[in-house]
Amino acid sequence: MNELNDEQLERIDQYLADELNATERAEVTSLIANNQTWKEAYDLRIAAGQVSKNVFHRSMRKKFTELDQATIPRRTIQPIWLAVAASLAILVSAVLWLFPTQDSNNLLAEYRTFPNIVLPIEKSGGEFTPREKIYQSYELGSYDQTITLFAQLDTVQTVDRLYLGLSYLESGNYHDAYTILDEVRASSNTRWSHVADWYQAWLLLKQDKTDEARAAFERIAKVPGHRYQTESEEVLAKLKSR
Amino acid sequence: MSKVQAQADTSILEDLRKDPERTLAVLYNKYKQVFLGYVRKFGGGAEDHVEVYHDAVLAFYDIWLQGRYDVNRASISTLLCAIGKNKLLTRLGKQARHLEWTELTPMIDAPDEVAAEPEEFLLARVEKAIDGLGDGCKEIITLFYYQKCSVKDIVERLSYKNENVVKAHKSRCMKRLKDLVQSTSS
Asked: What is the pTM of this model?
């Protein structure tokens, strides 16, 4: 069976993304209809999209169920219980005011690990470079191993320092994570410094330093064009509403 | 639909492009009570209503992904209720008598833009093979082939250096997927 070259495969992707003019589109439609190799490449991409959809739907259904479980069902309430509920509400508010950790604990459910976008795992075997091994280790969630491997790396770039800081964060070593993320934040490369800003703010939240975390999110929200500007505004709104 | 409502919906749609998972969760909570209040009158139990709401939110997302949702013709809550009503009645076996054509019907019932569904045996093989890919590949495949993100959008969403890096990565991931599919069938 003949293989399609990169240019032909890219053509199918452009077809799927509706980026071709009418003539080009008709040409690809004809190739898919009449050429088995083109049809197989096209079918694989359609199936990949369909499977991704199924996976996404399953994941969202699970999330919706979690949201349902977090919702208190509404029932008919007797007046006496209203009084008790009001008293409890005052008590809970007081506790929340005294112990703001409850706010951050709820919000922490929305925390997400930064993905490996540097050297994603693509190969199942063979020889890997030291840097590939490090990033694969990070992707697999082996953060202690990632930290050890970073220490053995000869040349270190800003992005490596970012992932080292993130590995410390994920492994719970907040002190080292803070220091390294601070260093990356000072970098002139906003592609990585913005990520460091964002995760350092979450680090403070993880440590229950709510006021400092709020200040960090406020700093991000004030930077025009910051990658996490909108997200920070949302976090601040949630911190404010609780 | 009020101007304020339209602006709120437009804002949700913008967020949906940037971060679908989180925005769908926000949308889910925002319209849940309105939706449940609306579908209750068509029968069924609380469990039916909640499950239909799950389906309706995901169906809404897919309609939007396929470019069929027009925010100027119906608010998000109106469309969710219309989808939910149809799904609930179908679930309860009442579709023949109760489903009616409305101006939203073409938005809800239009066939998927992809003419042919992949064959089941290929889907099963791809489903198995995709597990063998790393998270980076899974993410880029989802963004491009399901969520219809452009290469430019993916550069921004995942902080890639440029579009060529995304294309090269996507190409390697699909070759890897093809190899895995072939190895699962042999």
From this structure: 0.60
